[in-house]
Write a structure and sequence with these properties.
Blueprint lengths: L3 E3 L5 E10 L5 E8 L14 E5 L6 E5 L1
Antiparallel strand pairs: 1-2, 2-3, 4-5
Length: about 60
């Protein structure tokens, strides 16, 4: 079951990750929220991260700490 977060506007988002290659050739894992469940969905928040909500849009983001 994908990790879900409901913001204060009542919209539900699901946490995903994706491995990308940066311009310099370095590989990095990115985390993002989407309104639907896609491939790469995660069951829990990665260790060392917490979910925050942007004030202007209400979109959830991950923050280290």
């Amino acid at each position: 079951m994908a990790f879900s977060y409901t913001n204060k506007k009542g919209v539900k988002y699901y946490l995903h990750n994706k491995d990308v290659t940066l311009r310099g050739g370095r590989k990095q894992t990115i985390y993002f929220f989407a309104r639907d469940v896609r491939s790469g969905s995660l069951d829990k928040v990665p260790t060392g991260y917490k979910v925050m909500e942007t004030e202007r849009t209400g979109m959830p983001v991950l923050k280290k700490g």
